[in-house]
Amino acid sequence: MKRTSTKLIALLIIIGFVMAGCSDDSSSKEGDAVTLKLGHIQSENDLWHDGAVKFKEEVERLSEGNMKVEIYPNSTLGGDRDMAEGMQIGTVDFALVAGVLGNFEDSIQLLELPYLFSSQEEYNKVIHGEVGQEIANRVLEASDIRILNWWDRGPRHITANKPIETVADIKGLKMRIPEIKAMEHTWQAMGASPTTMAWNEVYTGLEQNVIEAQENPIPFIFGGRIHEVQDYLSLTAHKYEYVTLAMSDMTWSKLSAEQQEIIQEAADIATEYENQLVSEQTDEILETMKSEGLEVIEPDVEAFAEEARKSHSEFAETIDIDLYNRIVEALK
């Protein structure tokens, strides 16, 4: 009896490993349909999720149901780095990720320098031009992560429990930033005390005063309900922001040419859709947060920009000064 129980347990363990192996195949098939996973760190209330839903709908429409996309919001598939590494090994098929890609390819970090761009137009000129394509190619070569397109997020601003009106107001400020070296370098040079923290820990971190401030685009601040635990929003517009709709190149290589074409077309449609949402709804979202008690500050942005740009060249020297100079030249 004891021997039989041991064999049964061993058999169950083997079955468990087999099932786990099957579940790791993110391109699993249900009948003839290929099912792909898309993850992001925001809630279902965020514009990212709306864009992800549009992408899912377009993939399924264009493939006539032969390709399906499952969406995993709220860091269900892990944080940015977890999802990026998942795309490298093929356990995550798509993810909405941004600056974390700089951990795999340095050149994309140049886009993360606060006050590199002074307007949405400048940002678009670079990101959708030759430099943006070159950076995407470098990311693919270095990481096996394919950037399908760049989504707009609008400019990043600072929230805090005190008004941020001048550069002096950020001296020593314990401000959460994502794991992005360019941002850390610049904020430190300006006198702040930047602290990296996973997005799903930020609300609690602010609530418990582990951190004093954070910075993000207006729709992202609203999606994370940050205005419930912060009193002030300072319109610093320190970074015109993107998020990539990225894809595992391992998954891409398993698809037929027709399926790849469908994925790219759906990505382009979803990009236009999400960008339009950001353009149309950001002001409305800001008014909603103001009506819920958030006080808006309009600081001297040029003074912030002048201070930030003093450290740009120093950082660019550690990455690719020639590429940085090309970006600056493209903005003229």
What's the arrangement of secondary structure elements?
Layout: H1 2-23, E1 29-30, E2 33-39, H2 47-62, E3 67-72, H3 80-89, E4 94-97, H4 120-127, H5 130-143, E5 145-160, E6 174-177, H6 181-189, E7 193-196, H7 202-207, E8 213-217, H8 218-223, E9 232-248, H9 249-254, H10 257-291, E10 295-297, H11 301-309, H12 312-319, H13 321-330
Parallel strand pairs: 2-3, 2-4, 6-7, 6-8, 9-10
Antiparallel strand pairs: 1-2, 4-9, 5-8, 5-9
Structure notes:
The protein has 332 residues and is of the alpha/beta class. The chain has one domain (27-330): D-Maltodextrin-Binding Protein, domain 2 (3-Layer(aba) Sandwich), CATH 3.40.190. The chain has 13 helices and ten strands. Strands 1, 2, 3, 4, 5, 6, 7, 8, 9 and 10 form a ten-stranded mixed beta sheet that branches. A hairpin with a 2-residue loop joins strand 1 (29-30) and strand 2. Helix 2 (47-62) runs antiparallel to helix 10. The longest helix has 35 residues, at 257-291. One of its GO terms (biological process) is transmembrane transport.
